[in-house]
Predict the 3D structure of the following.
Amino acid sequence: MARKPVKLAWGVRREGRSLWTRNAVRGVSVRGERRKTDSRIEWRSWDPTRSKVAAALLRTNGDPSRLLPETGSTCLYLGASFGSTVSHIHDQVCGSQNHHGGQVVAVEIAPRAMRDLSELSCHRPGLVPVLGDARQPQTVAPYIRSQADWMHQDLSIADQAKTFVRMASVFLRPGGTGLLSLKAASERSSDGDDDSRFAKAAKILRESDLEVAERINLKGLEEQHVVFLVRKTVQSGQ
Amino acid sequence: MRIHYDWRLARVVDSDGEVFDELGWSPKRSVRALADRLSDLQSGRMSPEARTLSKRFPDAEVNGMAAMSDPGWPELEAEEQEMLSEAAAILAKRGVADAAADLDRRLDMLSSAAIELRSSWTTSEARCIEWAGLFLAEADLDGQRQEIPAAVAEAESIDAAAAALDVAIPAHQPEQVEWVALNGHAVGVVALAERLGVAEAATRELARQYVPTLSMLVGPLGAARLVVLAGGRERLARMPSGSLQVLGTRGAMAAHRRGAPSPKHSPVLFSLPQVSRSPRWVRGKISRYMAGKCSIAVRVDHFDGEPWGEEKIAEINQECVNIRERFPKPPRR
């Protein structure tokens, strides 16, 4: 029995426990994911066990559409890896041939991953691949057209929360949405359990000009990970 | 007064946002020139326009990020955005190609290939000896171990192999297809040994050039492995010796985080005769000492120091002997 699709945003919808995005490049899958056509629109399956953003959309207690960028907005993605999540964000923000006029800046440090990412960007106008250290603001600044409306950080480094706060203070516009994927195993300290590491990160976020809207536990889809949904307070900024 | 800039223009702005001076990039823009420009900006350099303005206004504070939040900053035009995307694509491709210039990555490929070859050679060689030994009941599997793979590989039949090894003809013959498989397997083992030799020789040579002092201290293959495990020479050079001591002990470190005692040494340090040939109770002391020396050695290599000579290495080896002699008996429990 077909489940009735729930629209989360222009290019994203949920059907039961699966997520789909409007494919910006018709007939092409990025990582061999399923595609299906529904009244002349092609939808591409978004696997929540491979993408933390997708996992967060399924696990959030609130309205999932708060987590998504708007079409045509400016987005910053730190730690883009091979670009599977980035491609779904691009589906939503830019659409086919970037008819929404969005920009997705995807930063990745590994040349091996950048190889796939730059190939992806050839077919997806609006997606800007940047090879460099996502912890350095100067890596991103020359490429991004304005402060970002939406940013996501998914880096396997120590001090993930501090890096996020620093990057968000420069690149996230006041009122913008930020997602921080936190991997417990990447934090260097060996004392305390995962929960205490998450709590430490939450404290760092609260002490900045970011407002933590929700802490989303990805248990069952991505172990030892949480996603923090934050909003940058409007009165702050330089 | 502040100077804000991006790749298109630089501006001198006062605290109220009023623009005092402005310089734009020449109207003759090309994608390639933009790519070079972006790469400069990305590495933290100022744009030429910003540099000129900062000469004109030496007191102004230069801020490469401020254009981000400057409300009066002009938006990118469609044409500019197109150009930026093309330049970013060129830069990404260039960066991917330039990864081959990185000796850390090359040493990683080479050393990992050598390690993988060695592990597959060990498995295959052992199987080849057991397989041939099953038929050649009289062959000395220890004494003739080195000759067996080559003898089987070059022989026409199992009888010929027996003759080459100077042992009795087997009591039971393998089937023809079985012999073809055994012979092919032995040919593979011989080829694998050759490939392993080539890969290890190349690793040794690269390591001797890249980390000469560390290579003298722990051997070129060990040195290469340490660099690879640390994720590059720079990272190894910046690593405290306590971390270097346990490089590569992933399982033991994970157990340590859950409460087990800390690992004494990495597989690389343990493979040194100074450590592995010493009695159990001094291994920790010697590996701690060697880790300290290794971390100095790699710093000498990375930060262009004078490479150590034979004398210095002999001194270090003597100190290991001294440690061993100082603790001749196991500590009392």
